[in-house]
Amino acid sequence: MYNGKESASYYLEDQPAAESQPRKPKLLIVDDSATIRATLSRAVGDEFDSHEATNGEEALQLLENDQGIDLVVTDLSMPKLDGYGLIKYMRAHESSRLVNMPVIVVTGANDTEAREQAFIAGANDFIGKTSDHVEFLARVRAHVKLAQTIQELEQSRRYLKEQADTDPLTKLANRRSFFASASTSLAQMRRQSEDFSVIILDIDHFKRINDTYGHQAGDVVLQQLAMVLSTAIREGDSLARIGGEEFVVASPYTNRLAAIVLSERLRRAVENSEFMFEGNRIPVTISLGISSMSKGNDDVDKLLAIADSRLYLAKQKGRNRICASDKAGKADRLVDTDMVCPRLDDAITMIKHGNTFRLQPHLYELGEQLIPVLELISNQKTDPPLDIETIKKAIESLLKPD
Predict the structure, then answer these.
(1) Each residue of 8-52: pLDDT tens digit?
(2) Which architecture does CATH list for 26-161?
(3) 184 contacts: CB under 8 Å, gap ≥ 6
(4) Which end of the chain is more exposed for a tag (fewer CB within 10 A), N or C?
(5) How far is CA 382 from the centre of its chain?
(6) Fold (topology level) of 175-340
(7) Does an H or E element contain 179, and which?
(8) 120 closest CA partner among 85, 74, 150
(9) Residue among 126, 50, 123 at smallest CA distance from 85
């Protein structure tokens, strides 16, 4: 059961407690010499939380397991993975944390070539093995402060991007974000000659909900609907709120029939969900319009416009239904999903998604589709060999209509 008040209290209770004191910056010292590791650790004293690794491989494991490390101090010559390899791996990592993490290299006083190669690999600074503790500590402090500034900027960037791409009420993608992701996905489907569909939906009589229960109830219904739809869509589908009570789903690898099946799944999920506000059960249904990529209808704007016109037809025909056609008059029939036999691959997908109720009227026809597949398999050498005639008779007996 969804409940707006419970959700609000849940978010309040889940706020993390403030830390009593700031943590010490973490320093990772990488060197195969225990003496040098101990010397460097003593140099930073209690101001830093020092960790040690004996080679590049061990350092990488620590860096990936401990998200709190702020700075790396490394030697260049080490067994298994040297300092050059460690730095190159960090700079090529998928995590921006490792890409941007400061690295100080410990080198010999006159080792100019080693410094140049380390710079090329991505080192930030150098310290000689004979440098005093004061210089080393000053360099570590400066780079840790730089690292913390970079982290704060990265967090701010992620926060601003999330705010720009996210609907603040439902936490779904907003219209801007949807158009960007859907356009990229559609272009990929076009290049691969694959199917792509768009489903636009909105809440039936949403104004009536606001007028009867208040606008706060309307907001709670929108939040709950977002949760229901998020659970009902498939992996790979994109869901967004594009305005008011309107939501949209972009479905790559999805033809018209598969989009109809998905739309019916969404419609039933909403119809069978319980929407509550202040002890009142609010009946909620949705209407849906479908469009699929075809010649001339191969960009997001056109697909959305077609889906929107079909959504309007679905509402004209009585709401709480799907429309996948724009034909007017008597020939304009809303698609009855129970009358359409899915293709075998679509049926397998439907079984995976738990939509077996839609397959019941079509078991015999699906069995007829399965037999040629089995015959094709039987022509291959299998061990043990398939007894295709026995399987065929079993299917015919099982699926034979009364």
Answers:
(1) 333 333 444 444 567 788 899 999 989 888 888 888 888 888 899
(2) 3-Layer(aba) Sandwich (3.40)
(3) none
(4) C
(5) 40
(6) Alpha-Beta Plaits (3.30.70)
(7) helix 175-191
(8) 85
(9) 123
